[in-house]
Amino acid sequence: MKVTVVGAGNVGATCADVLAYREIANEIILVDIKEGLAEGKALDIWQKSPINLYDSRTIGVTNDYSKTANSDVVVITSGLPRKPGMSRDDLIETNAGIVKSVTEQVIKYSPEATIIIVSNPLDVMTYQAHITSKMPRNKVMGMAGILDTARYRAFLAEALNVSPKDIQAVLMGGHGDTMVPLPRYTTVGGIPVTELIDKDKLDAIIERTKFGGGELVKLMGTSAWYAPGSAAAQMVEAIVRDQKRVFPVCVKLEGEYGIDDCYLGVPVILGKGGIEKVIELDLNAEEKALVENSRQHVKEVMAVLDKLN
Ligand SMILES: NC(=O)C1=CN([C@@H]2O[C@H](COP(=O)(O)OP(=O)(O)OC[C@H]3O[C@@H](n4cnc5c(N)ncnc54)[C@H](O)[C@@H]3O)[C@@H](O)[C@H]2O)C=CC1
Ligand SMILES: O=C([O-])CC(=O)C(=O)O
């Protein structure tokens, strides 16, 4: 399997590293616009292989998309990260141009690839890749839900003093402050979380999750990369190994949840066909209202993108 990661910055290089050491793909191409950066990071990851015992080959290139030809999956992480005080939406103008030009190059050399967008603002950059690539919705998707649920699960594991492995959760909506963690679909070793934690504590964890990206931006002056890079690699793994994993993924909704033509995070089945199924949950009135609020926000940012194109 051949996987390309565009953007050799914090998230892209982490993703390539996880893909390599977990041997998710045997050939990993790292691309960046900055001369030498992708070559250097790919070489560093390759030189780690005798230590960590893997044989996936990582190769870096500066803007040479011919080397990405016939990739099975392409992860797009190129673009600016936010700084303290910024929202993800503030990145739209710069990142839309980057995602558009990168998608054109990717599709030229790998017309059959499945594309995973990571660049922010996530839902709207997924929309940008979709309109540029003109690919069906099952092959163009955005990574956010695995990361957002991972934050939620990690906070819960800490509060309950249990292993994060045993916490399962669903989260829906856009990748922003309007995201919707769903306590009714959160379990701890099969036990509904509501039986194990007070409502006040759970509400505080939900609020922390919604602003989880911003918490890290404030701490580091730039955004997170270990969990985001690993989350993107987990999506690649589900596709290349045809695992049929159930994850929250950003996808174009076409009538599901009564929503049309909007890119939102929803639970899906991820396998070799990309998004093989959108799972429709029977949301209650309160959950529906929260998802609708998120939909409206994403739609507003999609309208900004329409003006840029
Ligand atoms: N979806 C999500 O959950 C997450 C999204 N992000 C987003 O991912 C993006 C990348 O974040 P970081 O890796 O931290 O940033 P970074 O600044 O470390 O890396 C971005 C890389 O993209 C490269 N780049 C810029 N234009 C390019 C082009 N036209 N072609 C190829 N490469 C190009 C830059 O040279 C840089 O190396 C940001 O937009 C960030 O907001 C970050 C974390 C989570
Ligand atoms: O917060 C950011 O800007 C990056 C991101 O999307 C995240 O870490 O959730």
TrEMBL record:
Lactate/malate dehydrogenase N-terminal domain span: 1-142
Active-site residues (renumbered): 175
Residues reported in the UniProt entry to bind NAD(+): 7-12, 32, 95, 118-120
Catalytic reaction(s) noted: (S)-malate + NAD(+) = oxaloacetate + NADH + H(+)
Residue ranges constituting the Lactate/malate dehydrogenase C-terminal domain according to the UniProt record: 147-302
UniProt entry tagged with the keyword Cytoplasm: no
The protein's enzyme class: oxidoreductase
Binding site for substrate: 82, 88, 120, 151
EC number: 1.1.1.37
Family: Belongs to the LDH/MDH superfamily. MDH type 3 family.
NCBIfam families the record matches: MalateDH_bact (TIGR01763), PRK06223.1 (NF004863)
Function, in words: Catalyzes the reversible oxidation of malate to oxaloacetate.
Entry protein name: Malate dehydrogenase
Native source organism of the sequence: Thermophagus xiamenensis
Top-level taxonomy: Bacteria, Pseudomonadati, Bacteroidota, Bacteroidia, Marinilabiliales
